[in-house]
Each structure stands twice: as structure tokens, then as C-alpha cells.
Amino acid sequence: MKVIDAHIHFSTIKSFQDTADNISCLSYSYDGLLKEWEQQEVVGAVAMGVTETEPLGFPDHRSETPMGLDLASSIPSNMGYCPGINPYKMEEGNLRELEREIQKSNVVGLKIYLGYYPFYAYDELYKPVYLLAEKYQLPVVFHTGDTYSERGLLKYAHPLTLDEVAVANRDVTFVMAHFGDPWVLDGAEVVYKNKNMYADLSGLIVGTQREINRYKQTRFLQHLLHALDYCDHYEKLMFGTDWPLISVDNYIHFIKGIIPEDFHQAVFYDTALKVYPRLGALLSE
Questions:
Q1: Domain parsing of the chain, residue ranges
Q2: Which residue, 201, 277, 209, 208, is CA-closest to 236?
Q3: pLDDT tens-digit profile of 46-73?
Q4: Helices (H), 6-155
Q5: Backbone φ, ψ for residue 86 (5° rounding)
Q6: What CATH number was assigned to the domain covering residues 3-282?
Q7: In sequence order, what are the residues at sequence separation of 6 or more whose Cβ sits closer than 8 angstroms to the Cβ of residue 166?
């Protein structure tokens, strides 16, 4: 089965490297990624642009908009990416640079880091981003749910706050990253209600197969399974690993186990091409 990983990272963020070394136990590198893709028939991916300059790490108020990818000197040709938005850097020059960046063929969307930065999705500050998304017919991806950094503020990352944005911008496609976890039932309602809201299933588990096995033996997954049934729109969900938080192999098997087989083609491939129209031209098939 061909796979598109609709949510990965490819940036020199210290927390990503630490996770790869100590928790997910994988090679967080250009070659390490390509090896995993070759083994698992991954034909394309969407990387989320994010950078850091401060000793404290991300979230970084000094990173420029747009935030890009800097793990290696080049990126795989079948990798699209979403430039990251730092709401503290939204001056006229930043917006001009963002518009220039999104005209590149490998830019497939835009990424807003709710929770990491203390602004709601419906804040007027983000309006120029939504206007650019509409102009260039690009989706906007929101981080939702838990924040990896203790400096994040969770109220800004609650998935219910996306409903207002979806209603106010009906001609823009939005993606709720991480399905709003742990508030996945609220996230499911927002996806169910709004035709322009999709979700990726990335980042639900961090670690190795050991963590997956442990969670399967507890009630940990019940809230997620409930939300998936409630949403009742598997065709609006996308596979994503949040690599390097977990290996591609382990996460494919995990997602296959919670998504009905009839929807594997949509979740692992078709929906990503619908949400990210530019991605198709980059795939290695």
C-alpha cells in the first residue's frame, strides 16, 4: 500500500533530536528518513516548517516568518512543506516574504502553532495568513491539543476554537493536526460539522512499539476510538507520524488497527492529495 505521511518534522529542533535519541529510538536525519520511507512504501510527505534560535528552544519568539526546514542542506524531492508562522513576526516584510515562499512548487500549505504561541486561531492577527491561503488555494494546518513544551498554553490549542475560523473562512481548507488530542471528541465535532475542516492523526503516541503495546492494554485509547466513531468521516482524516516522535513502521501498524480497512486507502493516501493539491506533483511513484 502506498503511503503519504501528512505530518512530519525536518528541523534542527533540540527537542526533536532528544526524542529521536532517547524515546523513539530512530535516526533523525535525511538518510534515516529515506530509509524508513523505502521500507514502508512512503511515496511522499508533508513537513511542518519550524525553527528555533533561543536557548530555551521552541516556541521561539525570535524565529522569522516564514519558518522553514533546516535539518539538512536539502530536502527530499517528494517532500512538500508548510512554512511556519510566528505571530510575533507578522510585519509587512514578513508577509511579503511569506507570499514569495508559498509560490514555490514544494510549498503545499501553511502551519500555525496554536498553544505554542498565545493567540487563538480566530485572532485578527492571523487574518493575512487566511487571505494568502485563499488566494493561493493552500490549506492551513493548526497545531491542536497537547503542547510538547511546558511553556505552551493549552487553552489556545483547544480544537473547539477552530470552529469560528472554519465558519468565517469557508473558502479555505483547514487541517486540525493531532485531531485535537486529548480533546478528540471536541475535535471530531468540528471536523464533522465543517466541510472545510480535516484532521491528521499524527502525534497520538510518542515512543516505540512498547508504548503502543502498553496503551492497548489500558483504557488509554478509548477516548480516541469514541471520537473516531462520533466523527463518522474517516474520509476526512489523514495518516501522519509527527516523525521523529515515532517510527513510520510502528505508526502505520497502529493507525491500521484503529481505522476500518475500508478507509485505509483514503486515510493513508487519497485524502492527503485532496487536502494538499500541490503534493501530487512531488510524489515519487
A1: 3-282
A2: 201
A3: 999 999 987 778 898 999 999 999 999 9
A4: 14-22, 30-40, 92-101, 127-136
A5: -100, 110
A6: 3.20.20.140
A7: 174, 190, 193, 194, 196, 197
Q: 168-171: long-range contacts (C-beta < 8 A, 24 or more apart)?
A: 168/122, 169/130, 169/133, 169/134, 169/196, 170/196, 171/134, 171/196
| Cell numbers found for residue 56 | 530555551
pLDDT averaged over every residue in the chain: 96
Instruction: Output the nine-digit C-alpha cell for 32.
Output: 534515516
179 pLDDT more than 70: yes
Number of residues in the chain: 285
Residue 137, class by beta-carbon neighbours within 10 Å (0-12 exposed, 13-18 middle, 19+ buried)? exposed
Query: What digits encode the pLDDT tens for the residues 199-249?
Result: 999 999 999 999 999 998 888 899 999 999 999 999 999 999 999 999 999
Are the C-beta atoms of 125 and 155 separated by less than 8 Å? Answer: no
pTM for this structure? 0.97
Determine the Cα–Cα distance for residues 71 and 105; give it in Å rounded to an integer. Answer: 20
* Residues in Cβ contact with 248 at an 8 Å cutoff, skipping those fewer than 6 apart: 3, 5, 36, 37, 39, 40, 42, 241
According to the model, what pLDDT value does residue 160 have? 98
Q: CA angle, corner 206, sides to 149 and 113, nearest 5?
A: 40
Residue 258 CA to residue 224 CA, distance in Å, equals 9
State the Cα–Cα distance between residues 180 and 114, nearest whole angstrom: 11
C-beta contacts of 254-262 below 8 A and 24+ residues apart? 254/204, 254/205, 254/212, 255/201, 258/221, 258/224, 258/225, 258/228, 259/228, 259/234, 260/234
